[in-house]
Design brief:
The protein is of the alpha/beta class. It has two domains: 233 residues, 3-Layer(aba) Sandwich (Rossmann fold); 69 residues, Alpha-Beta Plaits, CATH 3.30.70.100. 36% of the residues lie in helices and 26% in strands. The strands form three sheets. A six-stranded mixed beta sheet has the order 6-7-8-3-9-10, with helices on both faces. The chain has a four-stranded antiparallel beta sheet with strand order 2-1-4-5, covered by helices on one side. Strand 7, helix 7 and strand 8 form a beta-alpha-beta unit. Bound molecules: adenosine-5'-triphosphate and magnesium ion. Magnesium ion binds next to helix 2.
């Protein structure tokens, strides 16, 4: 699969399908979404990337009329979300984190029902249902009622149901969470095909790889606030500094290594499960020498180190609270 940014061919006909301006929503004292603005274009996948509690679902719910917009405004293919919710519902598809699946119906019946809701003519509907059942391998359980499904099977049906109609705008809230790797790959290519046929896809994800590979444009949010936006290449370029990655020989040395690195004026973030420390080189490559000399002087054994270009992970860590640098 090629990088999403390489595939992207900005063209004058790309229409802005989703416009969000200054969206905000609070729950009590929690400011779930704060002054969020972004666009999503037809024919593109727009990824909302953020950790747990970032405000992704709240944003999707406001855009899909499931939650009232507290302040700010939004439109979907030119239709104002707050003023004309019924009209908006007719041009969108949604797969949410809370399944919209009818427990008493089989997968086939659920898909049929969605097809009828979208008023797809019978012959076309049957074809589409059969195609999706085959493509996403729902065959084994397509004729059993949904209440007997495993978590992953239910999830698959929920997502597939949103793919029935190919509406102008499709919202997918963490579509691949809970799916096995094979189904995830199938879903990626189905989403790509829908976008290539002109659908504006807005998806949320916590997976950097997913945002990187699938999204034409990415909006990073954390604690309800937009931290950055652009193509994944843009985002990586913004964070131009190289990264020194250090593997300490002994995991027990992680804390000591971080202190040593701080001692020479550099920052680091550690992977708590492993032995790696990431040191963004804000002071250029020379800084790596100071860091390595410092570790040596402090008696910390290094198994391995490398200098590398930033990944989207680095951007994400640098811009969200997960980086632990606030
Ligand atoms: N109905 C609600 N009542 C109170 N607080 C809420 C409600 N819905 C969301 N929140 C809070 O708003 C914030 C954003 O939640 P949201 O569900 O939008 O995050 P998210 O990015 O979708 O997270 P996840 O990746 O876990 O799905 C969180 O702090 C959450 O606890
Ligand atoms: Mg969510």
């Amino acid at each position: 699969m090629t990088d999403a940014s390489e595939r992207r061919s900005p063209n004058a006909e790309d229409a802005v399908a989703v416009v969000a301006r200054g969206l905000s929503k609070s729950f009590g004292k929690t400011r779930a979404v704060s002054d969020l603005s972004f666009d999503a274009r037809s024919g593109e996948v727009t990824g909302l990337l953020g950790p747990n509690g970032a405000g992704k679902t709240t944003t999707i719910k406001m855009l899909t009329t499931l939650l009232p917009i507290e302040s700010g405004n939004a439109s979907i293919v030119g239709i104002d979300v707050a003023r004309r919710p019924d009209a908006v519902r007719r041009v969108i598809g949604l797969a949410g984190q809370s399944a919209a699946v009818d427990e008493k119906l089989t997968a086939r019946e659920n898909l049929e029902l969605f097809g009828r809701l979208y008023k797809i003519p019978r012959a076309e509907r049957m074809k589409r249902v059969d195609y999706l059942i085959e493509r996403f391998e729902l065959g084994d359980f397509a004729d059993r009622v949904a209440e007997t499904y495993s978590g992953g099977q239910r999830r698959r049906l929920d997502v597939v149901a949103s793919l029935i109609a190919a509406p102008p705008v499709l919202f997918l809230d963490e579509p691949t969470t809970g799916l096995d790797p094979h189904t995830r790959t199938e879903l990626w290519s189905e989403i790509r095909e829908l976008a290539d046929r002109g659908t504006a896809v807005v998806l949320t994800t916590q997976y950097l790889e997913e945002a990187d590979r699938l999204s034409d444009s990415i909006v990073i949010i954390d604690e309800g606030v937009m931290k950055a936006s652009g193509t994944s290449a843009d985002l990586k370029r913004d964070l131009e500094r190289e990264v020194l990655e250090i593997h300490v020989a002994d995991r027990k040395d992680l804390t000591g290594a971080a202190a040593s690195i701080a001692g020479v004026g550099a920052e680091s973030s550690a992977d708590p499960e492993g032995t790696r420390l990431q040191v963004p080189l804000t002071g250029g490559a020379r800084q790596s020498l100071a860091v390595l000399r410092g570790l040596d002087a402090d008696g910390i054994a290094i198994a391995d180190f490398q200098l590398r270009k930033p990944t989207l992970d680095d951007v994400f860590l640098a811009m969200t609270s997960r980086g632990g640098r606030r």
